[in-house]
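=== RUN LOG ===
request id: a7f3
mode: sequence -> structure
chains: 1
length: 171
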Amino acid sequence: MYYYNSVTLPFLQLSALAEILEKIDAERKTKNISDDELLGLRLIDDMFTFGKQLRFSIDKSVALAEIFTGKNAPKTSAEHATLDAYKKEISENLTFLKNLSETDFTNPEEKTFSHPIFFPEEKLIGSDIIPFFLANMYFHTTTAYDILRHFGFQIGKKDFLGTQVFAKLQK
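=== RESULT ===
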């Protein structure tokens, strides 16, 4: 359970996000949209920008693996100035997830997590940590996707799901 929720699901979502970024990179170049313009897109003024949504998508995608294994992912927590920098960081974090095994998860039921904003005085323990991070990962990747759709990028649900989801289809 811990490996599947901390590695498999985030790997699929982060892979799909990487594929979307490749796809929209070509499209934005034909539309002459700069990195600054692209990363600054947002749905509404009080929401995070596309760049910030990417930042949180990466962070939340590897957070469970970091908590449950004690290993540090190569995320930077920086807001990058270019799409290529985000693509590179996603690639590095996919490699981090791919290199984890179930044996890296030692005593995950004893791990704890507190959030400085949402619940600073309380903590989540073991499997109770999983819903918080999966929900946040899906929220930020969905919002990044929604920003791109809102601004006319040619992506759809199949792109959001990613090719990895369909890799094991059988006839």
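=== NOTES ===
The first strand starts at residue 112 and ends at 115.
The first helix runs from residue 2 to 30.
=== END ===
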